[in-house]
Amino acid sequence: MAEKQYRQYEKEKRVNKFVLTIVTIIDMFLFFGYIGDYAQGNISFGFMLAVDLSVVISMIACYAVYFHKKDSMAFQHVSVVGYMVVYGLAVFGAQNDLVFMMVFPLTVIYILYYDFKLILRIAVIFGAINVVDVFYIAVVLGHMHSGAPLNSTSLLLQGASAVVYMIVLCGTTQISNDNNAKKIENINQEKEKSTALLNEVLRVVASVRQDSTEAAEHIRQLSQDVDSTVSELGGIAEGNSTNAESIEKQTMMTGNIQSMILETKQMSDEMLAMAESSENAVQEGQQTVDRLQSQAHRTEEANEQVVSSVSSLIANAKAVENITEQIFSISSQTNLLALNASIESARAGAAGKGFAVVSEEIRALADETRNLTEGIRKIVDELKSNADTAKNTVDNVMMAAGTEHELIANASAQFGEIGSRMGGLHTNVSEIYKKIEEILEANNAIVDSINHISAVSEEVTASTQQAAELGADTSRKAEQARGLMMGLLETVKAIDKYL
């Protein structure tokens, strides 16, 4: 809209400037021409002054309106009115019969305004001036302006020329305006077609640009996703490599655990043999106590003499019981071995939890075995000492047999209890032996599983590296496609100036 107004402004300004130039030239000729006629004595001073004043006033009005607003529509009316006044004075007071021709050069330039009403007013007024002038010459003056006798041909030529010229001027303006209107209509129709075509092209271009922008964005996102995938695949490959190293370390640790389990199994075999030997020894001790008991029956008569010794034996037995309770927490080599096994099972993690429980049981049983063995040793020592005392006492007091019989019965009961515990120990050691064999089998299965996982991890690493290479190639192709789409967008942007 602003550009259209600017073009209209330039058009009006150029026409006004051209009309002002022509009016100025004509007025200058009139101004100096009438001064020259006055100097030659052809016209009076008053007539010369009237024409020149009208010329000056007309020129001042035209320049004032033009420079106030160069594209003013009022300029054409001011210039026409001023020229009408000058022309009327010049025609009616002229001393030349051809002054009426001054109407032709000026009025024709107003066609440039393409205003039929303005041309019609000009034609009517200037035609009327010439018709009135012809009537004035024929009726009032009775002779031509130059003083020559009336010449009907000249008068007819003046009237006809002016009227025909004005008719032609109006007709030309009307036809020119009609032709221009038709041309403008055709131009508008073509413009509408061109506009519709351009709008359709712009719509297609906008759609292509939008689609290209979305496609470029999708390709950019795809490229980023592919890069992320390649990065993730690289991380997975590195993770698989780390896993392979970890699996290798776990395989070594599992081998170490297996070696320790085998060593523990060997120790369990030894503990089982020791338990069986201890059980046999207890049985032999039980048999010996039985024999002592039968002997005690024969020496019952000496029981009163060995009361003090039996009391000592009872006190010692209580001491043995106290000692057994106090040293319950002392560990032996087996306890140390069980502790080491517990530590190694803790290092093995979830795979060694079951073995940790078994090793704890081994340690508890080993503690109990050691306690019982120590108690037995102490009791045996005390029994030996008491037996010596009892032997000396028996030599002196044969009457203490009754008390000795009771002590032997008590010792027999203790040996029975020890035998029962040794049987339980033998059973527990057997169970431990079975658990160790199960742990050994489970550990072998874990080793096989780790080897399988290692093989699968190597295959996954190879596949991941291949996928990473494929992703990198896809990323390069996506970047190339994005470059093509950006080129298409740049091409589409070249049409933005038509929006």
- Biggest sheet features: none
Percent of residues in helical segments? over 70%
Radius of gyration: 70 Å
Basic shape = rod-shaped
pLDDT averaged over residues: 75
Low-confidence stretches: none
How many strands in all? 0
Cα separation of the termini: 14 Å
Portion in beta strands: under 5%
Estimated structural class: mainly alpha
- How many separate helices? 10
The SSE string, one letter per element, is HHHHHHHHHH
Provide structural commentary.
- By secondary structure, this protein is mostly helical.
- It contains ten helices and no strands.
- Helix 1 (2-39) runs antiparallel to helix 2 (45-68), helix 2 packs antiparallel against helix 3 (74-92) and helix 8 (333-348) packs antiparallel against helix 9 (353-396).
Could you name the key traits of this structure?
single chain; about 500 residues; mainly alpha; 10 helices
